[in-house]
Amino acid sequence: MPKLGMEPVRRKALIDATISAIGERGSLNVTVSEIAERAGVSSALAHHYFGPKEELLLATMRQLLADLGRDSVAALRKATAPRQRLSAIAAVNFNASQFREETVHAWLAFYVEAQNSLPLRRLLSVYARRLHSNLMSGLLPLVPRKQAERMAEAIAAMIDGLYIRRALRDGLPNPASAISLVEDYVDAMLAKQAPRA
């Protein structure tokens, strides 16, 4: 019987172990037994908390989204100007917790698997809509709506593309370089715009 009060701790350990296992393997082709062993629990307990492997994977994706969402809200609260909001979004997506090697690999594996999994595709749609909304909140005060939509799409594509490039490279991630590329694009596009009346 599970110890009282341990469920949240063990759930988090299982989710962290899932991210680690996916990151190491580079795919979702991991077993619940492997994940449970990494988390220091039995596979029976992992099944008790999450049910089948697919539910554990979905919970892991939800946790990645929740962590990103929490970090985004905190960063955006500190951003007082529209341009600062754009910088905050770039910084959050490439901060130390989001741009760890295993997290990058987990995101990439989820993107690949979403082609065959409707629940994962829905979760990635939530991420995409949230990112778009956050970008638009910074862009709309600075540029006309049509241009804001185009810029939001391009910035989101840059963020996702930089994640893919990171996943395909060896060595330590370079968040400063990734942020700089996004910032350079935003500055160049804003410089082309006439000031809004």
Distance between the termini: 66 Å
Stretches with pLDDT under 50, minimum 5 residues: none
The count of DSSP E runs of length 2 or more, i.e. the number of strands, is 0
The figure for the number of domains is: 1
CATH fold descriptor: Tetracycline Repressor, domain 2
Question: Any descriptors?
Answer:
HTH-type_TetR-like_transc_reg, HTH_TetR, mainly alpha, elongated, single chain, Tetracycline Repressor, domain 2, 197 residues, BetI_C
The gist of it:
Keywords: DNA-binding, Repressor, Transcription, Transcription regulation. Pathway: Amine and polyamine biosynthesis; betaine biosynthesis via choline pathway [regulation]. Helix content is 76%, strand content 0%.
What does this structure look like?
This protein is an all-alpha fold. It has a single domain, classed as Tetracycline Repressor, domain 2 (Orthogonal Bundle), CATH 1.10.357.10. 76% of the residues lie in helices and 0% in strands. It contains nine helices and no strands. Helix 1 packs across helix 4 (53-78) and helix 4 packs parallel to helix 7 (118-139). The chain starts with 6 loop residues before the first helix and ends in a 5-residue tail after the last helix. The mean pLDDT is 89. Keywords: DNA-binding, Repressor, Transcription, Transcription regulation. InterPro entries: BetI_C, Homeodomain-like_sf, HTH-type_TetR-like_transc_reg, HTH_TetR, Tet_transcr_reg_TetR-rel_C_sf, Tscrpt_rep_BetI. Repressor involved in the biosynthesis of the osmoprotectant glycine betaine. It represses transcription of the choline transporter BetT and the genes of BetAB involved in the synthesis of glycine betaine. This is HTH-type transcriptional regulator BetI. Residues 8-68 form the HTH tetR-type domain.
